[in-house]
Amino acid sequence: MADRIFRRKKERNQSLFIVLRILLAVVALLAIISSRTKIGLFLFVLTGSISFFDGLLAKRANIVSQFRSLFDPFADKLLINGAAFGLWANGLVPGWLLMAYAAKDVILIIGAVVILIRNYKTVFHANVPDKFSSFTQGLALFFVLSGNPDNVLIAISVVFTALSFVVTLFKSGAKIVKYRTDLEEIKFSSLVKLPDLFTFGNVAMGISAIFFALNNRFLFASIALLAAVAFDIFDGKIAVWRQQERPFGKSLDSLADTVSFGVAPAIFGFAQEQSAIAVVIFTLFVFAGVLRLARYNVLSFAGDKNFTGMPITVNGLVVPLLYFLGAPPLWYPYVYLILALLMVSPLQIKRFF
Q1: What is the mean pLDDT of residues 115-133?
Q2: Per-residue CA distances from 54 to 47, 64, 75 (Å)
Q3: pLDDT given at position 6
Q4: Structural domains of the chain sorted by starting position, each given as residue range(s) with its CATH number in brackets
Q5: What whole-number distance in Å separates Cα of residue 267 and Cα of residue 42?
Q6: Mind spelling out the 3-state secondary structure of the chain?
Q7: Interhelix angle for 128-145 vs 151-170, to 10°?
Q8: What is the pLDDT of the chain when averaged over all its residues?
Q9: 68 or 84: which carries more pLDDT confidence?
Q10: Helices 37-60, 276-301: crossing angle, 10 deg rounding
Q11: What CA–CA distance (Å, rounded) separates 43 from 34?
């Protein structure tokens, strides 16, 4: 019984990475469509890197779940097709390339839906050509986003896309399982409680901050970050008051914090300073935030009452403060580096909210 509970906790943490990738893919699409190509490239590489490490961790933990089998490839396809659509909208790739990528995925998604309707206990496994297809597509789009399109690489990606489609038609990788799947155990009506509504408010403010930063409206982005901090504080207080502290709520809160206090501040800084060292530091900043929250989830399940490392929520206070104090953009990378180091440090900090 204990092993089963621990396994569910690992699956829940892995699911958070998938949801984060989906959110980042949408933000990358918005950045590319808005002609913020450098920010789009940053998000594209960041999301792809998270996808790579997410896959390694899932394989190492031997996690097989229906949720992952459906939404892990969906997150990858959303990133690829979203980037291709944004580049096509800006005239940077031809329409036939977008059609080649998207048509295959749309057909396969429809097929998967039909299979699930026939038997909802189906789990899907990716084939090798599909993995090569995603890799070559991502590599081809990376060079387009970086301003160095490679026609040979684009052609190779189209070949692997076609090969993947043919192989999947004859070998779908669909398998009907007899055990109760993780999706069957999810009942959203019983999962979502009052504190979670404040967590959703946290996410909404984080996404708003990203949107404002992409449009160079840094005052509104700063206000949105401060509002996200307020929502984050209240959701914890209300959870304690209502005695509704649950694993789902903690996982949802971690996802919200990653968006609002990891990704949003990184976009905020990147929109103002885009030097080579800034790109590296902002990327490390996001990964430090993800690692900080992953460690927090493990320690909170173990019953640790103190923070290990600086709480990621502090970023939502420091970054707006930098802006309100009129700090030069050149300062941002160095402040972010200090914040990243503090988040992953072994410092024991008493909970103050």
Answers
A1: 78
A2: 10, 13, 12
A3: 45
A4: 2-185 (1.20.120), 189-349 (1.20.120.1760)
A5: 9
A6: CHHHHHHHHHHHHHHHHHHHHHHHHHHHHHHHHCCCHHHHHHHHHHHHHHHHHHHHHHHHCCCCCHHHHHHHHHHHHHHHHHHHHHHHHCCCCCHHHHHHHHHHHHHHHHHHHHHHHHCCCEEECCCHHHHHHHHHHHHHHHHHHCCCCCHHHHHHHHHHHHHHHHHHHHCCCEEECCCCCHHHHCCHHHHCCHHHHHHHHHHHHHHHHHHHHHCCCHHHHHHHHHHHHHHHHHHHHHHHHCCCCCHHHHHHHHHHHHHHHHHHHHHHHHCCCCCHHHHHHHHHHHHHHHHHHHHHHHHHHCCCCCEECCCHHHHHHHHHHHHHCCCCHHHHHHHHHHHHHHHCCCCEECCCC
A7: 150
A8: 82
A9: 84
A10: 40
A11: 13
pLDDT of residue 9: 52
Query: Residue 2 pLDDT more than 50?
Result: no
Task: Name the amino acid, one letter, at 305.
Answer: K
pLDDT digits (tens, 9 = 90+) for 281-298: 998 999 898 887 777 666
Distance separating alpha carbons of residues 40 and 146, to the nearest angstrom: 10
Tell me the average pLDDT across 304-333: 88
Backbone angles phi, psi at 337, to 5 degrees: -65, -45
d(Cα 328, Cα 26) in Å, to the nearest integer?
Answer: 29
Cβ-proximal residues to 314 (8 Å cutoff; 6+ apart), any chain: 261, 339, 342
Query: In terms of DSSP bridges, do strands 122-124 and 174-176 run parallel, antiparallel, or are they unpaired?
Result: antiparallel
